[in-house]
């Protein structure tokens, strides 16, 4: 209420919008101003601008700005760092102050020779390098450096997983015990659960690529670290039903470590190279899509260690390949099957020549998905999983209920008007 008792209208204050960062006319120079959402920063002109769309447009067309565009256009797709360097000509020593909008300022000291390098910090990876042709240094002269700040991966530190953000809204979850062929130990089960639980609600994550470090994707269950079996089987009680309850809970916890991948509303693309064994099949069967390298091979190996696979392969794999007879053959025999066979049965949808091209392809598709409405994409995932497990009419009912809310999303209006105007829509974080 206002002073005179009348209801005051809320004033709309335009604030910096994340989607501007990826819009074509602004993407190479626009940055946030940390702590001031009503301002924006142009790294070409080194000046602040009012964070309003029309002001940004006006600025991008201004003579001053056009003159400030570097001759050598520097790709700064995700650049978020504002940089500014002071150098001491005599000693060739320099100090680069890296202002990171994701946290406080950083200062980088070093010598000219060291200027090109990657720095990993809590806020992500900075790639700091000198732009060719702009190497002259003088006191207080601003040296342009290319600084790509990948979106933050703060809070994603795990012993058995490495999380990076190769592009905006994309996270790469990499199994990271290469010396042990990414075998799944006790820490891994906790890490993967915590990681996907966090990714599920992270507005900076729209798509996930799941890959493995080193020689192969994964050797499955860690056979040498028998903590799992010890903890599953150890019990103070001699009573078999009490023991069984404990084991049941343990298995369900392990199952949940992979279920979270499927429950995560963001699409997950498995990028498999070389071997994918046992628990690896359980895990990638939870993913939305599977790509692999030419040298990839797969094995439902549990039968060879005296187990019926219990973390989802028997439930999900046959639904993916739609061939019950072949699925049973693979599960009963533990026979290896290669990339070609995996593609022919529909377990993977693409084969790439090697690991690099595999990751490139996965990230490219991830980028395409990440550019779509996150409301729509997540709706597709949730409803696809639901429909797999329910009848057509139950699925339709769930879908109708879902969209009775989601059709009201601003994304629908944005997407439709962008389609009419032949423009690329930019969607807010979800
Ligand atoms: C409640 C149950 C829940 C889940 C159940 C899941 C079931 C399964 O996952 S069944 C599948 C179990 N896995 C296996 O049977 C694979 C065994 N490993 C191999 O066959 C081979 O190691 C290989 C994976 C084919 C890799 O061969 P290679 O490239 O020649 O490397 P290696 O020299 O053999 O191994 C290198 C290094 O990794 C360690 N290692 C490999 N696999 C595992 C594993 N499954 N568990 C633990 N450690 C593994 C191996 O010991 C070597 O380590 P060093 O320290 O260098 O000796």
Automatic annotation (TrEMBL):
Keywords: Acetylation, Fatty acid metabolism, Isomerase, Lipid metabolism, Peroxisome. GO terms for cellular component: mitochondrion; peroxisome. It holds the Pfam family ECH_1. It is found in: Peroxisome. This is Delta(3,5)-Delta(2,4)-dienoyl-CoA isomerase, mitochondrial. It catalyses: (3E,5Z,8Z,11Z,14Z)-eicosapentaenoyl-CoA = (2E,4E,8Z,11Z,14Z)-eicosapentaenoyl-CoA; (3E,5Z)-octadienoyl-CoA = (2E,4E)-octadienoyl-CoA. GO terms for biological process: fatty acid metabolic process. The keyword Lipid metabolism applies. It comes from the Eukaryota. It comes from Biomphalaria pfeifferi (Bloodfluke planorb). One of its GO terms (molecular function) is delta(3,5)-delta(2,4)-dienoyl-CoA isomerase activity. Isomerization of 3-trans,5-cis-dienoyl-CoA to 2-trans,4-trans-dienoyl-CoA. The keyword Acetylation applies. Its main location: other.
């Amino acid at each position: 209420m206002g002073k005179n008792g009348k209801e005051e209208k809320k004033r709309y204050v335009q604030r910096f919008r994340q989607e501007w960062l990826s819009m074509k006319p602004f993407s190479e120079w626009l940055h946030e101003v940390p702590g001031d959402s009503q301002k924006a920063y142009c790294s070409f002109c080194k000046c602040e601008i009012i964070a309003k769309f029309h002001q940004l447009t006006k600025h991008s067309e201004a003579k001053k700005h056009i003159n400030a565009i570097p001759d050598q256009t520097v790709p700064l797709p995700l650049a978020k760092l504002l940089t500014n360097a002071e150098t001491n000509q005599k000693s060739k020593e320099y100090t680069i102050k890296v202002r990171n909008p994701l946290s406080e300022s950083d200062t980088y000291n070093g010598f000219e020779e060291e200027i090109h390098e990657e720095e990993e910090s809590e806020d992500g990876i900075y790639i700091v390098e000198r732009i060719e042709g702009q190497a002259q240094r003088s006191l207080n002269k601003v040296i342009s450096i290319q600084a790509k700040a990948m979106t933050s991966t703060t809070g994603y530190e795990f012993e058995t997983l490495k999380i990076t953000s190769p592009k905006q809204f994309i996270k790469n979850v990499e199994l990271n015990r290469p010396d042990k062929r990414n075998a799944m130990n006790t820490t891994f089960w906790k890490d993967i659960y915590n990681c996907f639980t966090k990714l599920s609600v992270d507005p900076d994550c729209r798509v996930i690529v799941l890959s493995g470090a080193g020689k192969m994707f994964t050797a499955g269950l860690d056979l040498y670290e028998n903590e799992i079996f010890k903890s599953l089987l150890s019990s103070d009680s001699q009573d078999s039903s009490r023991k069984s309850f404990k084991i049941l809970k343990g298995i369900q916890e392990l199952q949940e470590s992979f279920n979270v991948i499927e429950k995560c509303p963001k699409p997950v693309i498995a990028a498999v190279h070389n071997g994918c064994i046992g628990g690896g099949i359980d895990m990638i069967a939870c993913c939305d899509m599977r790509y692999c390298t030419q040298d990839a091979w797969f094995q439902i190996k549990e039968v060879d260690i005296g187990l019926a696979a219990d973390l989802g392969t028997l439930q999900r794999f046959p639904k993916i390949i739609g061939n019950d007879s072949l699925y049973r053959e693979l599960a009963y025999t533990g026979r290896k099957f290669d990339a070609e066979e995996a593609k022919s049965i529909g377990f993977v949808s693409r084969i790439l020549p090697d690991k690099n091209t595999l990751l490139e392809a996965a990230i490219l598709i991830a980028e395409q998905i990440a550019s779509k409405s996150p409301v729509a994409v997540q709706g597709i995932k949730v409803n696809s999983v639901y429909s797999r497990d329910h009848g057509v009419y139950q699925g339709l009912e769930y879908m109708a209920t879902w969209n009775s809310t989601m059709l009201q999303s601003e994304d629908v209006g944005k997407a439709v008007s962008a389609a009419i105007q032949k423009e690329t829509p930019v969607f807010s974080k979800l």
